[in-house]
Fold:
Amino acid sequence: MSNKIEITTWNVNSVRKRLNSISIFLKDFIPDILLLQETKVSNELFPYQFFKDFGYHFIHHEGEKTGYNGVAIIAKSELEVIPKIEFINDARHLAVKINNIELHNFYIPAGGDIPDVTMNDKFKDKLNFIDNMTKWFQGKKPNDNIIIAGDFNVAPLENDVWSHKQLLKIISHTPVEVEKLSNLYNSLNFRDSVRKFTDDSEKLYSWWSYRARDWKKSNRGRRLDHIWTTANLYHNVEKANIFKSTRDHEVPSDHVPISITLSLG
DNA sequence: ATGGTGGAGCATCCA
Structure:
């Protein structure tokens, strides 16, 4: 067994619509563990064989009949499934153990359009979701080995969005969300493993809207997807990648995969 | 200030 593991997270916005894009990605780069969000499919209709054909023998998926949400943890070798966090009712979270590390896959709610909890229940639910995550991780031990990853739907830093000023009232970059995410970050001494390799003064995005005429030209991106490790694992993070090229695929997700390489031992 | 697109699945809802 290799002493390094590659972990990739990708909001695919419908796994069935994205099979071609995922193929192109996996022919180039096969992570040990692939975390998906927004699979938008029931368990019965999940394309298990597609991933088995790429050598993934462990596929843990939780979908919804409605076609909303849906998360998966896909790995080359068998992993131990650990219980879901109790407060999460939608298919927005799964967790496994690998070696001595807890790995959590999250799809935090997007929160709707109006950044006011008195007018928008979806925004209230998003803030509550992050608060509940914070409480849950406060209950862990500071020296536990934990990685949390996924679509957090918050771009916390000024250079995680194309215009800090213009996005202050846009959900994903409002001060209240950034504060909530900061509380989560501090709940267990998390470290931002992707920012480790790019200074805060540089722009970094993982999502570009479908609504731009030319996403690359306008480049109005946001960094909504994250991989955080507890502080004791941070020095093991050797590399991080944002696979921007997938945004140019023929039928692309609006999110691109992000990845870290972790050395073990 | 506004509207722009994409996915599930058939009327809207959600992102």
